[in-house]
Amino acid sequence: MRTLESLAVSDSAIAEFPGGTDRDGNIQTGLAGTWLGESIDDPTRRQLNNKGIQAVIYGKVLQELTAACAKIEAGNTGDNSGASHNVDEAWAFYVGVPVLTGVGTGPSPARPAAWQDSG
Predict the structure, then answer these.
(1) Mean pLDDT throughout 59-71?
(2) Is the pLDDT of residue 50 over 60?
(3) Contact predicate 13/6, CB 8 Å
(4) Residue 88: how many CB atoms within 10 A of its CB?
(5) Which DSSP state fits 111?
(6) pLDDT band with cut points at 50, 70 and 90 for residue 49
(7) What 3-state DSSP class applies to 116?
(8) What's CA 47's distance to the chain center, in Å?
(9) CB-based contacts of 30: which residues, under 8 Å, 6+ apart?
(10) What CA–CA distance (Å, rounded) separates 105 from 81?
(11) Residue 13 CB neighbour total at 10 angstroms
């Protein structure tokens, strides 16, 4: 299982944002109430944490889509290791964990799908 921290501090994530902010550090300080989160109220700290988490997920989605573009240009469109695999990964991070809907699984109700279930 991948953790949010492993995504925030991975070598590939850091390479995608050279000279960028320490995304994991921003989340940690918001949780602990230190540095950036030291003199702000709880709702603002919560927002700091949420924005930090969103930045990590956004970075991972962009990383997967960038990899998919490179694979498409190289003609690698296979299901298991080609561009479609990277698009599936990006979609999974964007949608979130499937939830039981009573008739199977579906996208998180917090982020409705942009497509319709055809059957």
Answers:
(1) 91
(2) yes
(3) no
(4) 13
(5) S
(6) confident
(7) coil
(8) 17
(9) 36, 37, 45, 46, 48, 49, 52
(10) 24
(11) 19
Banded model confidence at residue 107, pLDDT cuts 50, 70, 90: very low
Q: Rounded mean pLDDT of the chain?
A: 75
Q: DSSP secondary-structure letter at 36?
A: G
How many other CB atoms sit within 10 Å of the CB of residue 8?
23
Contact 29, 36 (CB under 8 A): yes
Q: Is 119 exposed, middle or buried (0-12, 13-18, 19+ CB in 10 A)?
A: exposed
Cα separation, 58 vs 38, in Å, equals: 25
Residues contacting 87, CB < 8 A, separation 6+? 64, 65, 68
Angle made by CA atoms 26, 24, 51, in degrees to the nearest 5? 55
Residue linked to tokens 């998919």: 68
Beta-strand (E) ranges in 1-119? 99-100, 105-106
